[in-house]
Model the fold of this input.
Amino acid sequence: RVINLSLGLNTTADLIKDAIQYARSSEAVVVASAGNRGIMDPDHFPANRIEVLGVASTNNLDLKADFSSYSPHVDMCAPGENILSTFLSHGYAIWSGTSMSTPMVSGAAALRIELHPSAGADEIIADIENSALELDFDGYDYDGKMGEGRLDLAALTAAY
Done:
């Protein structure tokens, strides 16, 4: 019910687009990374798709991470700097990127499904976006291009 796409292209791939549309028609939540070019990037695929929850990265100050791309297609942001994750050969490593932020939002979608299994994809996405912590980006060129705010699990789960 949740698909994490920690990937991106600067072109559209019909096979991926068709798979996303099929997944959404089956009520799956599809989450994709906004890209790591550090610029306004409205063409970053598949995060630019309307059916996808596009995710940018924030740093420890709740500002845009230097590497994070941004755009009006971005739906929200999540921490993405110095994230401990799994690595090859049963190990761990510290990584930074929107591909590290995206699984946090995917995990939030899975948690939301666990709390209310009959909810549809649109309801789950709306709950995640509506519970996001609004961040003040006034004066930054990415103001209005980082989505609804930063992922806030406490606010998301407070109603349940």
